Amino acid sequence: MRVADVVAEILKREGVELIIGYPVNDVLEAAARADIRTVIVRQERVGIHMADAMSRVTSGQRIGVFAMQHGPGTENAFGAVAQAYADSVPVLLL
């Protein structure tokens, strides 16, 4: 079993029904195999804002999950991460 499969299984057991992500991430494919709906975005910042919105709309009952690529993806996501942090919004980033 691969690490991505274990992460997807943990997310499934924790009740995650949707994962937002930027392509080329093993966790997204593992999540799809675990019957977690995946939504693909074209820019990391947009994806984090979507995860942020999920958490806000449900008052934190369903935490938004975002999977990004390493390296430049982290830099592109930083603005949205800072916004969620500043507003104390729970978001899980992978």
UniProtKB/TrEMBL annotation:
Belongs to the TPP enzyme family. InterPro entries: THDP-binding, Thiamin_PyroP_enz_TPP-bd_dom, TPP_enz. CDD domains: TPP_PYR_POX_like. Gene3D superfamilies: 3.40.50.970. GO terms for molecular function: acetolactate synthase activity; flavin adenine dinucleotide binding; thiamine pyrophosphate binding. It comes from Thermomicrobium roseum. Pfam families: TPP_enzyme_N (PF02776). It comes from the Bacteria. GO terms for cellular component: acetolactate synthase complex. This is Thiamine pyrophosphate enzyme N-terminal TPP-binding domain-containing protein. PANTHER family: ACETOLACTATE SYNTHASE CATALYTIC SUBUNIT, MITOCHONDRIAL, THIAMINE PYROPHOSPHATE ENZYMES.
